[in-house]
């Protein structure tokens, strides 16, 4: 009697004698289902301090649907928004229990039988970003995954969809800038800040950058200058009556970026030209923005807000992916770079403590699986 082969996990097969085949078709599908490998994941069961509520556990295999793609994660960053989601203070967050992480890069491990355009070995990123990237294997619908160039450095592929894309969208979405214009920003040492400097430089746009007064600020200034910054000031240097006298031959900025709030936001406003716009995309100081009445009446300044997630719906994926490919190509050519520290997954909680600022200012922590 002939033997019948049924597909099992990872493409292996089980030979069954026909008399052993169950009559229930649902049972046959269970035997033939494609399953993901088991996964190791960072999970949290309730909201609270990330170093307290997160734990690393093993998750069982997941049955894959026809349109699913199983991705073996290669790397994923720890972003401030990831921390805020775990704390429960971010406006949009997954229901608990949840796996942490929101962006990253992985390699296609296996695909459902209806998937087209993706094959095992391809590099992909979730675009728009998707929760649950802090685990070794992720199974999601093919619509989530965007295939990228495997020549891009892994850590840049893992981090492109939040910080660099924020920088690019803010440069393009609010003011029509042309070569020779200027922008001003605080938080210039952040990854968004570093990207703004380089993307502006590529467009022949000048950048004026504000950093906090702290140990190593002179070294930070030199690093930003090497990235292409035209001017870098510490906050204490701007304690003058007319900050624009420090600009020499640079034009007054038409556009400013604020991720700090408080006095640092006021300094950005002081630089802006008549009719200028300040875009706020963060509030690291947790202090409010105070604006003088004269800034509105006599300078006609505009205050805007930016939240990347609002622009990252699945209906806008095509536009975002085009911008992501542009950014990744710059990274591949070493025209876009920023500071990161790649940490083995086994050392996740060490990296988390660094991301929480428990060891002072640290580079972006990127987990390598």
Key traits:
369 residues, alpha/beta, Quinone Oxidoreductase, Chain A, domain 1, 7-stranded mixed beta sheet, disordered N terminus, lipid metabolism, lipid biosynthesis, fatty acid biosynthesis, enoyl-[acyl-carrier-protein] reductase (NADPH) activity
By CATH reckoning, the class of the largest domain would read Alpha Beta
Uncertain runs are 1-31
Q: What is the CATH topology descriptor of the largest domain?
A: Quinone Oxidoreductase, Chain A, domain 1
The total count of strands amounts to 18
What does this structure look like?
The protein is of the alpha/beta class and 369 residues long. It folds into three domains: 1-33, no CATH class; 39-161 and 339-368, Quinone Oxidoreductase, Chain A, domain 1; 163-309, Rossmann fold (3-Layer(aba) Sandwich), CATH 3.40.50. Helix content is 27%, strand content 24%. It has helices spanning 25-32, 50-53, 80-87, 154-159, 163-173, 191-202, 217-227, 262-271, 293-297, 317-332, 348-355; strands at residues 4-7, 13-16, 39-44, 54-59, 68-77, 98-99, 105-111, 123-126, 137-141, 145-148, 182-185, 206-211, 231-234, 255-258, 277-280, 302-305, 340-344, 364-368. The strands form four sheets. Strands 5, 7, 8, 9, 10, 17 and 18 form a seven-stranded mixed beta sheet that branches. The chain has a six-stranded parallel beta sheet with strand order 13-12-11-14-15-16, sandwiched between helices. Residues 48-367 form the Enoyl reductase (ER) domain. It is found in: Mitochondrion.
